[in-house]
Design goal:
- By secondary structure, this protein is of the alpha+beta class.
- It folds into four domains: 1-36; 49-56 and 314-387, Beta Barrel (conserved putative lor/sdh protein from methanococcus maripaludis s2 fold); 61-71 and 222-309, Elongation Factor Tu (Ef-tu), domain 3 (Beta Barrel), CATH 2.40.30.170; 74-217, RNA polymerase II/Efflux pump adaptor protein, barrel-sandwich hybrid domain (OB fold (Dihydrolipoamide Acetyltransferase, E2P)).
- Helices cover 29% and strands 33% of the residues.
- It has a six-stranded antiparallel beta sheet, with no helix packed on it.
- The chain is elongated.
């Protein structure tokens, strides 16, 4: 009986302890659930790289698409009819004025020249005879041995003989020219094309249907043609009236050339022609530059980007393009104010100059512009600025 009492008391003791532990757990859980969550520590200001705009003297350039063309270009045609005896040049070679290109059979023209030479000699002999007969008649008329009419006839005979001599001389010169034309020579310095007629073929030298033999184009220097629209012409004209830019009609203004695949100008030349009217169909004015081509690498018909002087030198503020953002239709930059908060400023852009963008309006020389970390900048929020050059990169 006693053992049962002890056993029941032990069970109740254990049950009471379990209930107390469960109650304590509920109270603890309720306390934890009802407590307010602790707020995370405030994040620091995001780092950005800032720089003052670069200030330097720049010059604006107007850019156009241009096409090169030879200063001199000649289609070499036959000037006499005959069979080609030889082709005396290499296709695509450089030739000098006077170099032999073709030889046409000269024999018939040499024979004609000999015949004309004989006719000239006969005409000169008749002039000598007419002069002697006139001299005798003038002597005899003094003694009334002959009449004045005889003297007049002798004078007329002399004049006719002299005229015949002139005609014979002209025929000989023409015949000699034909002999000369059988040797087809280069009329200019330049690069010759391929030969279009081979040995043994008959070529025609008539004025209406002369056979084309080849062509030659000059290469150094070379012209580049470009078309500027009316607005650029008016802008340059206004600058000329204001004395800020010389006129290309009076001054050989510089031009810069960028060939296909180039990002910077590799050649320079000068403007040597502006047309006297705008094209009514395109509203553009044709201009022309003269460009040295000493290495002969530029060919007529080749295209290039042409930069023409567009202003006088002036002081400008410049930024890298990476510092410029777009806000709808506006171009903007982000500036860090004195209290390290971000401000957005609309700007007016100019051309690129040596990799930097000219800022025409909206920026001051002492502004701290964000050049790196734009994605971390928010207007009105604070940032942690680090100084850098305007061309990018932190200062050492």
């Amino acid at each position: 009986m006693e053992s049962h009492v002890i056993s029941d008391g032990f069970r109740r003791s254990r049950s009471d302890k379990a209930l107390l532990a469960f109650a304590a757990a509920i109270v603890g859980f309720t306390a934890v659930g009802c407590s307010k969550p602790t707020s995370p520590p405030a994040a620091g200001a995001p780092p950005v790289t800032v720089a003052a705009p670069t200030k330097r003297t720049v010059t604006d350039w107007d850019e156009f698409t241009g096409r090169f063309d030879a200063i001199e270009q000649v289609q070499v045609r036959a000037r006499v009819t005959g069979f080609v005896m030889s082709v005396d040049f290499k296709d695509g070679a450089m030739v000098k004025a006077g170099d032999l290109l073709y030889t046409i059979d000269p024999r018939q023209y040499e024979a004609t020249a000999e015949q004309a030479r004989g006719q000239l000699a006969d005409a000169k002999a008749k002039v000598d005879l007419a002069e002697r007969e006139l001299a005798r008649a003038e002597t005899l008329v003094k003694t009334s041995a002959v009449s004045e009419s005889v003297v007049d006839q002798r004078r007329q005979s002399l004049s006719a003989a002299q005229a015949a001599t002139m005609q014979a001389d002209g025929v000989l010169k023409r015949a000699l020219l034909d002999v000369e034309y059988t040797r087809v020579v280069a009329p200019i310095d330049g690069r010759v094309s391929r030969h279009l007629v081979t040995v043994g073929n008959l070529v025609q030298g008539s004025e209406s249907g002369a056979t084309l033999l080849t062509s030659i184009v000059s290469l150094d220097p070379i012209h580049v043609y470009f078309d500027m629209d009316e607005s650029i012409y008016l802008k340059n004209n206004r600058l000329w009236f204001e004395g800020k830019r010389p006129s290309s009609r009076d001054t050989p203004n510089p031009v810069q050339i960028m060939l296909s695949g180039e990002t910077k100008p590799s050649r320079e030349g000068t403007v040597d022609f502006l047309d006297n009217r705008l094209d009514v169909g395109t509203g553009t004015l044709r201009g022309r530059g003269l460009v040295p081509n000493t290495d002969l690498s530029i060919l007529p018909g080749q295209f290039a980007r042409v930069r023409v002087l567009g202003s006088a030198p002036y002081e400008a503020l410049l930024l890298p393009d990476t510092a410029i953002a777009t806000d709808q239709s506006r171009k903007v930059v982000f500036v860090v104010k004195a209290d390290d908060t971000v401000e957005m400023k609309p700007v007016v852009l100019g051309p690129l100059d040596d990799g930097l963008r000219v800022i025409r309006e909206g920026l001051k020389a002492d502004d701290r512009v964000i050049v790196e970390g734009l994605q971390r900048a928010r207007v009105g929020a604070k940032v942690s600025p680090h100084a850098a050059n305007a061309s990018g990169g932190s200062k050492p």
